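Supplementary notes for students who missed Thursday's class. We covered one full example, reproduced here. Read the sequence, then the structure, then the short commentary at the end.
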Amino acid sequence: MKNRGFTLIELLVVIAVIGILASVVLASLNSARAKGRNARRASDVKQIMLAFQMAINDTGTVPSVAAEHCISATCYESWANYVRNSTVDAWLAPYLPTWPSDPVGGRARGGYLYFLNFPGGTTPYDGSPAPAGHIINWATEPPLSATSCSGGKVWAVESNYVECVLYIN
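Structure (token representation):
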């Protein structure tokens, strides 16, 4: 019997199947990366909240500053105009050994913000009432799930981010 090898059609079918499998694997990998970045954000928020709670227990108050401030190593995209504040930094420094750094993802905003006097109101997400107070604000990557805000409240849901708030006191 004569060995003919592969025909061109057989070779193209094999290449197409490999391409489809590769695209499925890459889509799963991107989803896993987003979940990993969101898990890191949840951990950072817990660390920030713990630092605030310890500082409040020791000092009896929150830092009195005039505006919203970045409390991560940097804030980026639409939150780049929020800068760190030396008063807040000095107040948190004994309790926050390293400043969290929000993992860069494909979102419209990033970092962790501290709002001294959050005005409250109703959430753009579901219209539920949100009280005024001191909050930490951050954004995660979609999709929206029960754990997206790691104990915080969903403030807004957009196509490329889920914005979360967590009340300090």
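Commentary. The mean pLDDT is 87. The longest helix spans residues 8-59. If anything here is unclear, bring it to office hours.
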